[in-house]
Queue: 3 jobs
Job 1
Amino acid sequence: MDAPKHLIGTAGLVIRSMRPRQWIKNLFVFAPILFSMNIFQPSHLLRASAAFLLFCALAGVVYLINDIVDRGEDRHHPVKRHRPLASGLLRVNTALFWAAAIALCSLLVSWVFSKAFFWTALTYMAINIAYSLWLKAVVILDVMLISAGFVLRVMAGGFANDIPLSPWILLITFLLSIFLALVKRRQEMMRSQMSEEGGSRSRAILDKYNLPFLDQLIALSTATTLISYFMYVLDPRVKGKFHTDWLIVTIPFVVFGVFRYLFLAYVDNRGENPEEVVITDLPFLINALLWLAVFVWILYA
């Protein structure tokens, strides 16, 4: 009786360490079928859903490895110290075993699924493991690698359905994810400075940043993200592809979403966990759903 209970308990700790709440980021794999007007095609939707599940598994493996590497620093974080590996509830050897098993199974399925998808998934894994082990200590590059993970998700979604990828969508994804990563860095720094532990930081990379520098980068990434979206919806080739001039009406939703996120970071002191902001802030969530509804209506109505 004890063995099954122990196995169930261990599985629960592994799943917690894989951070299911952050899997919302993998919704980016659906972008290609949305922007190619295939979102309502059952076969495309099914393959995109399979790609989503595979990236959830791979992302979970990355989080497991990251928690193994960061467990020492996480013990000094007011929230992260409760993670299974940082708290000692989950053994390192057990986490490594499950990470290897899940990664192997996911990559094998990816190979059968699509060769291009497999290489994209493998690149995603390699970049994130390198990030966890070494590259997260390299200023600027750490943020760009986080952004690369989102771009690879979009690419994987395209390869899953053999959909040509728009350079505009890749560019907007890259800039938007850089914006989110920079805000996350800023909020991590703010949290560390307000910590009751005398400003101790859970990330060594924060020592290489300062708030004025991050604020400048956030302002720059805000502008470039918005301008890129404006240029996308105003591009004559995009208008010709979708046979509409009405994509311009989606601009206010994008502006509100970006500005709302900045408000939550700078005024409400949120933004360290973007996935929580997306699903817990009602105005942001309603605006995102309205943008999606209007965009889909313009493209598909």
Note: Residues 166-301 form one domain.
Job 2
Amino acid sequence: MDSLDLARQIADILVEKQAEDILILDLRALTPITDYFVICTGTSQRQLRALQQTIIESLKQGEAHLKAAGVEGTPESGWLLMDYGDVIVHLFEAETRAYYRLEELWGAGRVVAKIQ
């Protein structure tokens, strides 16, 4: 599975779990750190935790048996991060996402998909 397929698979999981404002951002031309960010907003701390757990379990049980290299943050902080190497997933509460504005910080990246 290539990195774009992984980003899309994660976005599909987020859609299924009713995350909001899902964005896949292509960063390959900007940084060697990762290929894509997948960013979304959860409506509550409980939903953030559910989104995180569903992504981790789905990717671990999928055909590629992927495990995150790192998982950071807590639902209480309003920002959870999962590092899958070529894809980094950011799960935000709305207020925290607005504060950190990753889309603006990485604004030179190409938007691959935006799902309201």
Note: The chain has one domain: 3-115.
Job 3
Amino acid sequence: MATTTLMTADEFLRAPDSDQRHELIRGEVRSMPPAGGEHGHIGMEVAIPLGVAVKEQRLGKVFLAETGFRIARDPDTVRAPDVSFLRAERWAAMERPRAFIEGPPDLAVEVVSPSDSAEEVHEKALAWLEAGVRLLWVVHPRGRTVTVYAPDRTARLLGVDDTLDGGEIVPGFRLPVRDIFA
């Protein structure tokens, strides 16, 4: 019986670059196909207004999909949401990470890809919630909806006539769901 050697986050960080995106899930490297045009565009439709609001109010930092967050140790898990936000006080309390950011973001945004199965989307949402993310938005391009998850795992489904609200996590931030799919 073959055994799998698990990789640490430090080993994952030092691994040679490739043309594909990867995440480290419980010590195992998972390849992710490059995002398609619609996926990337939707991510930016969230990231740009979020980034402007966060910068204007000095609320913290917004990150794009290349940013890894170590959300579990031994075995290590490093995930990279499509868009994320970290509150200013958390950012100020850490050294400028040259490696992965320790812990989850305060807000994680995942855009569902055509290749994502329902099981994969559910697994990713659970992983973020279990890691302690305070707000999770899962954007479903096909249905033009956004599922909003709270830490207690309650979920609300928003349609194009609804508005995303940053609540206590990103105070004052509001984004019409319709604008995400423009």
Note: The CA atoms of residues 18 and 31 lie 10 Å apart.
